[in-house]
Amino acid sequence: MTSGIPKSDPALVPPPGLPILDLDPFDYAYFDNPYPHHAIMREAAPLFWLSRYNCIGTGRYDLVVEVLKDWERFTSARGVGLVDYAKDERFRPQSMILEADPPVHTRTRSAMMKVLSPRVMRGLRKHFENVADELIDELLDREVFDGIPDLAERFPLTVFPDSLGMKREGRENLLPVGDLVFNSFGPENEIFLKSKPLAEKGFAWLEMQCRRENLAPTGFGKAMFDLVDEGHLVEREGEVMVRAMLMAGVDTTVNGIGGGIYSLAKAPDQYAKLAENPDLARDAFEEAVRWISPAQAFFRTVSQDTELAGVHLAEGTKIFLVLSSANRDPRKWENPDRYDITRKAIGHVGFGHGIHMCVGQNLARLEGEIILATIARKAKSLELIGPAKLRYNNTLRGFASLPLRIKAK
Questions:
Q1: What is the CATH number of the domain that holds 230?
Q2: What is the pLDDT of residues 51-76, one digit of tens each?
Q3: Is residue 250 part of a domain?
Q4: I need a labelling partner for 220 at 20 to 30 A (CA). Which of 97, 261, 266, 315 fits?
Q5: 195-234 pLDDT, tens digit each
Q6: HEC secondary structure over the chain
Q7: Mean pLDDT of all residues in 362-378
Q8: Residue 361 falls inside a structural domain
Q9: Does residue 156 lie in a domain region?
């Protein structure tokens, strides 16, 4: 994924006077405790230069939002990772939604929003609630379980592929494939390389599952191919869009639910509030997305010479947008390091911002709200009984293991 571009390229040279940071936001030490590094990024200056990767960065809320909503100056079409598609080889096919700008993005996002509309989400609620009831009852009988494979992974990997119309066999491939895709937004480091072997067979399996003939006659997949039949998309685009739905509806949701469970287990006072009033589940999930930030960072590329925060940026400059830092920026949030389910977390960038805001956010919110509300209705306590183990990824923050104990009311 290296380009061989000479350092004389103005996009690879730090603008005069910009603070130069030598930290590596893609190594294990950073992932173990990113918050002190976020503070360094935010307080260095509105913008900083990340010397290890020759790119601009910002961890401040206002600038992250400014860049995310200005797709004309800061394009996604050249890749939302470290690689610039105009200069470097691509590891994978380009996303038709996340890595496209208007007019292509307008057409494909419109198709996705029709399939994942609020009306469709309302129709899913009862089924999702029934699955959540059965799952939490089972876990209450066990009392002790691992909150990631037994809950945060199991619930989305059941309800969403069911709703899409996917066969049950082989669903275990979804997470390794998503893990590698999100790893690919960063450098080709050890974390990326370790995820490749696990995902190799999954890509071929996923390609087959997204074809019209392998999907049930009802569900999201069928609805997407209805748009193909109506002339809004061509057949191959329908397959790509079904795959995009799977990517939007699984990995980030798994990490969001895992983050919500972890947040509540780490803050017993907040779980007590939720157990007393399960109607706060939506707020509890939203605050967890802000506090944990399952999507930690994305990149944009400067599409034309421009200025940002008074700094001249050359065309081709990559901008590292630290969403997780913006979500704890004290310039925006009061007591930002506190998890508070009564906080109005509206405006967080955990799902992005602007036209490229996560297309699966309503689905993630529905799943997160339902599972947290079900736990709150049925369990009087939620306790972390061992160390939480991180799952390392170049883009996502999530857990590999959460040893938990819950007790019924």
A1: 1.10.630.10
A2: 999 999 999 999 999 999 999 999 99
A3: yes
A4: 261
A5: 999 898 888 888 888 899 999 998 999 999 999 999 988 8
A6: CCCCCCCCCHHHCCCCCCCEECCCCCCHHHHHCCHHHHHHHHHHCCCEEECCCCEEEECCHHHHHHHHHCCCCEECCCCCCCCCCCCCCCCCCCCCCCCCCCCHHHHHHHHHHHHCCHHHHHHHHHHHHHHHHHHHHHHHHHCEEECHHHHHCHHHHHHHHHHHCCCCCCHHHHHHHHHHHHHCCCCCCHHHHHHHHHHHHHHHHHHHHCCHHHCCCCCHHHHHHHHHHCCCCCHHHHHHHHHHHHHHHCHHHHHHHHHHHHHHHHCHHHHHHHHHCHHHHHHHHHHHHHHHCCECEEEEEECCCEEECCEEECCCCEEEEEHHHHCCCCCCCCCCCCCCCCCCCCCCCCCCCHHHCCCCHHHHHHHHHHHHHHHHHHEEEEEECCCCEEECCCCECEEEECEEEEEEC
A7: 96
A8: yes
A9: yes
